[in-house]
């Protein structure tokens, strides 16, 4: 029987702190391990075939070092780390399928409205594509309310 795996995707922001803590706790309760993954997005290609590199991103060695710093909140919980390349949501779902992951636990940025429409939601795309349950958590303290209603006289 394979070991139970809980997948924790990270973008190295603090939005996933609560999710990592929960993933660790669930792995402890279920006798499993945490699979920590970061997805490096490839540079964008343009119509003529040229590549746009934009702002310099951390090089792969730097990403590996950053990934090594992400640790389960309980040092007794086994973990494995992966640095993969591709579209984040697609790569996370594919890794979950390939590894027979039991659950994906991930943080969200808590964007709503126009920001979500413009930037999209990796978490939402993972929920749609994943072959297993996905548990998403907002960082504690994020405002989950909808935009404030208009006041009388505002147009």
Features:
23% strand, 33% helix, Rossmann fold, 155 residues, 5 helices, five-stranded parallel beta sheet, disordered C terminus, alpha/beta
Describe what this molecule looks like in 3D:
The structure is a single chain. This protein is an alpha/beta fold. Helix content is 33%, strand content 23%. The chain has five helices and seven strands; from the N terminus they run E-H-E-E-E-H-E-H-E-H-H-E. It has helices at residues 17-30, 60-69, 88-99, 113-119, 122-129; strands spanning 5-9, 33-40, 44-45, 51-52, 79-85, 103-108, 134-138. It has a five-stranded parallel β-sheet, sandwiched between helices. Helix 1 (17-30) links the parallel strand 1 (5-9) and strand 2.
Task: Break the fold down into its secondary structure elements and pairings.
Blueprint: E1 5-9, H1 17-30, E2 33-40, E3 44-45, E4 51-52, H2 60-69, E5 79-85, H3 88-99, E6 103-108, H4 113-119, H5 122-129, E7 134-138
Parallel strand pairs: 1-2, 1-6, 2-5, 6-7
Antiparallel strand pairs: 3-4
Helix pairs in contact: 3-5
